[in-house]
Request: fold
Amino acid sequence: MFELKISFGTFLSLFSVIYLSYTIHLYFYSPKLEYKSIFSEILKLSICAGFIIFVYKTCQIYLLRQRYRHIPGPKTNGLLGFYLGNIPELKELVKHKMVPDILADWVKEYGPCFKYQILDKISVFTISPEAIKEMYIEKNFPKHPDIYAVLGFPYGSRYMGTSLVTSLNNERHRHRRHIMNPAFSRQALNGFMDEFNAKSDILMDKLRNLADGKTTIKMLDELNNLTLDVIAAACFGMQNDSITKENNLKKYVFESLRGLNRLLFNPTIKYNPFEWNYIQRYKKLLNDLRNLGRAQIHSRIKALEDDNYVKDDLITLMVKNSKTSSIDIEDLVDDFLTFFVAGQETTSNMLAFAILELGQNIPVLNKLKEEVDSTIGSKNHIDYDDLSKLKYLESVIKETLRKWSITPLINRQSTVPIKIYDYEIPVGSEIQVSSYVSGRMEEFFPDCKKFEPERFYSNEGKINKYTYFPFSLGPRNCIGQNFSIIEGKICLAKFIQNFNFKLDPNQSFEGVQHATINPASGTLAVLEIRSD
Ligand code: HEM
Reply:
């Protein structure tokens, strides 16, 4: 298909050039040809080119549909459906449901491996544990460019660029991952305990002032500030206080995420002339954010050159290793931004969903209180050794990620033939999987709508990691997974230690999909300081 595209593009350009040269030639050498004739010739050329494109696209879509016709999936409707694929029904369905919920419904209707069409693209979706293992572990397929190109260069401007998350080249990725792994080792995480504790304490102090038994607090907003400050401090040595103050990092990171969400859900806005001003403002914002990252990196380079004391944190590792490899400063800025995008909203949503579930499941909350009280008591600083004793808390977090896997879906591109159940998947296919969807399948998790940390508490070894993979799998899994679990445990343990809470009666129990899945009303809670 790629070959066909190239030769078609070349053919169309050649055709236009020859036709246009011929028209211009006529204009100059034929005295009778009038000035306006050249416009009529250009008009004819445009109509002709439009027609050729239409025929080409029709053939391309026809061939594409033929290649995937043996795989089941939602039908497309009539002639419009031939060209638009499943867009019309998806547009209706997303008014009431998140995309992963629609995919879960389609699994029930079409089976564990199905295809769907969006314009001239067909994606395959599967929950098959065997196929997931094959794609993510055994064959280590690369990421498919569709989503990652937008994350790397939204609106044509460099955001995450070709970073750890967005790199499509597995070899380049492996090299960079190798450099960064030590910043997330057990020893490094142990070294972050002071930051995790200190930032959570600032949040608890703020919440204590609001815990009057009446004020409704939007927990997600507060948690967003916490997780931003934790990454800034632990990974990059930046001491912001976003929990109590405004600052540029907070403004830039949050607004850049909002712009990314708009584009992911409405890719046409970049062609909309009425959005021109917004896009220019967004590009400036990305520029400011990158300048901020660049300044931080330069200051660490200078500190290292001057032999000043610096922590052996992520930014130090990145800077030191860039000297001995082909990583330039803009690559480092890509990774700087990536850690905020990948690690901030994900962790705050996980915590907000955990509080939402605890607020609805009082027996679970009470069991958790017992564990926190008996393990931490009134102790202020949670130590690394305390973490392993908070086993039920860990199960609460894991169950939260089963029911509310924060990343809606991830994808891979097949580079060799692969068979999923009885279906041969064409080479080059985009194959999507989703821990959210797998986590909500009755056959993998009986009573899957129920929030039951016991699944993980007493059954841990029995959970199949190819049906539960909120942090992805294989060489491209989440580098920050232990970081976020520890951060989450410390924050939640302190929250439970300090407060009783109720959910606001206006709280929604739905999720809403942005780049990540969020609790729809942001977990609205009314807090009281614990006296029991
Ligand atoms: C609950 C919290 C989190 C969840 C659910 C989560 C989930 C994920 C998932 C699913 C991926 C794979 C993405 C893909 O294939 O496109 C990923 C990758 C990544 N995550 Fe996380 N993440 C979380 C927290 C964090 C934190 C705290 C950090 C950093 C401090 C982080 C940094 C990254 C990075 C850098 C990658 C790319 C890794 C690579 O390709 O080598 N994440 N995460």
